[in-house]
């Protein structure tokens, strides 16, 4: 049975799980305090001697302070599925926000994105600082290079956060192979996206494959598995959480694709940016597949330019609600794909194909599947009520969101 | 007493240390085998599923196969100053070559460099692949983005190499704080260089400060200290190696600055590239300080353009002999600094100031100081003959090289 986004049915589901309902906000608060502290200490330690250090530290602190912390929460939830609360665990998974910051900051450079988390992207802010200082040389080039370096620092600090979390060595050793695989998967996934970007429009299977391998795994499944493995979970529990993670990760990214076309400024990015950036997301590709020939031709003319060979990058990268897969106006692909896109016309065409409703159904199927998994695991004692409640709440939060 | 580069005096010094004289080549051979194996395995594990994976794996394997492996050697030498041979140690320090690959690949993107280690830079090769494939979109942009990602992978794999070296946890735990500090220092140093790049010509003290903090520390001192600390060296030995590392690191980078002006193609880069890229290296800044007013004015006119406010980036980045601190022709700074530089005229002017001879003297002072430290440590039993011999050989190799 399909879950329509925003229905009261899902929201009631959340209310039923009162014992853990306050968790996400509490975890978020603790993770935020921890990440902010790491950035403050690391900047004081390493960045203080550099010209512009105060500005740079401020940019980083602001950036990490505005995330949703989904990856930390799923890491911690995976841990709690198999072990009691631990300040060390929370510190280790807080590091996942720095890993995410690394990915977003560098992806935004590669994509030429302008807005992220409701602010100019990091490289845009750094370019602005360069201009304000009246420095010589290219401000844009400086902004991009400096942002890549800040991303590198976040990648290093992320791993340090895990190693210095205070968790015992044997706990960390259960996590490292998964952590390393996740990091390589992340970089290779972005590489695959760059290659896709430069190719023709993929079909829906291809989009879903990239979506799973990249954003879905990285947002939900891998953090859950990492946390559970570190807590010493058995194979059965790891499989359960992995299956939940695959379904909710896909739901998360498909919702992201809907918001990229129909979302408002609440996403922290420009409305309709997936359209203006001509991204071949699940929604757009599905719309083309569902469309009558005449509608498809109009859609292609609107989105792909006359030669039908415009950049069709997957939109499956780094979904984060207010921080997702942005490729803002003014990028290479937008510049090279032809003139500006008529967003209203493209929205109407996509709506007319039924693709939006179909994506909502696909999301609903995944949420229902994940909730059934959780219910089954509670029934036979594999999951405690508190963790199950938060997994249910997070499933809905990922799938049914406006930002 | 000054050591002139290339004198027989130094070469005889090397011959005297025959017991360890074969070490550098033997260590290099073992490090090469290890790094090549890591790249092959990681690519097979993570990159194989991506379009272009064979090309990418080949580019990386070729790149890491062409280094001088100075950082691995100094790491291993630091280890051997306090502990016996260990395959695990060699594996851990081999990872330093991947860390160096990360830095060089990303720096070359930032600097717009064209040549590295006698080949087109990684981003240039990737852009060429994009063109050969007939892909849409900007090939240059693709090359830069893909190179940044390959750099990221090297950064991750470097740390994995150390963690998975097989060294006991307590050994690694002695290394991690230094390893993390070195990584942050590396990224922050490059950031400082970007800021310098956009400012006016620094004075010699400033150049020497950046030179020490960046290339010198990272090439010699930090790897030596890392290895020694992991091997359990006491404070006295750490201080000795740190002092040696500071002196030889400075000598290494000053030699690099001489090669950047007077070197041949043996450096793996274009001859005279520091001039065409208008870099404010130790040699160039010293030449300005030593020059008569008339000569200085001509030098400024040649190197800085008419407004004397051209880009004056420090040349202290990532020295690596055949792989150093490149900012090749056709970069932003070269484009923005005015027309092409008359390399022959600039060389003659610099030579006429006596700056080249003075830099050779400064290098010689440092090599002599380092050799005295080593001799003293052998005399009172703090260093074994074999390690001392290789430290002497490496001092000369770093200071007195043509590539």
Structural commentary:
Chains A, B: Residues 308-340 are annotated as: Disordered. Chains A, B: Residues 308-322 have a biased composition (Gly residues). Chains A, B: Residues 325-335 have a biased composition (Basic and acidic residues). Chains A, B: Belongs to the FPP/GGPP synthase family. Chains A, B: GO terms for molecular function: (2E,6E)-farnesyl diphosphate synthase activity; metal ion binding. 2 copies of one chain form a homodimer. With 403 residues, chain A is mostly helical. The first copy, chain A, has one domain (8-399): Farnesyl Diphosphate Synthase. Chain A is 71% helix and 1% strand. Chain A contains 18 helices and 2 strands. The first copy, chain A, has helices spanning 8-16, 18-21, 23-47, 53-64, 70-80, 87-111, 122-132, 139-163, 169-197, 204-230, 235-262, 273-276, 282-290, 293-304, 332-336, 343-353, 355-379, 385-399, and strands at residues 115-116, 119-120. A two-stranded antiparallel sheet of chain A has the order 1-2. In chain A, a hairpin with a 2-residue loop joins strand 1 and strand 2. In chain A, helix 3 runs antiparallel to helix 4 (53-64), helix 5 (70-80) runs antiparallel to helix 6 (87-111) and helix 5 (70-80) packs across helix 10. The longest helix of chain A is centred in the middle third of the chain and has 29 residues, at 169-197. The radius of gyration of chain A is 21 Å and the shape is flat. Mean pLDDT of chain A is 83; it is low at 1-19 and 306-337. Chains A and B meet through helix 3, helix 6, helix 8, helix 9 and helix 15 of A and helix 3, helix 6, helix 8, helix 9 and helix 15 of B.
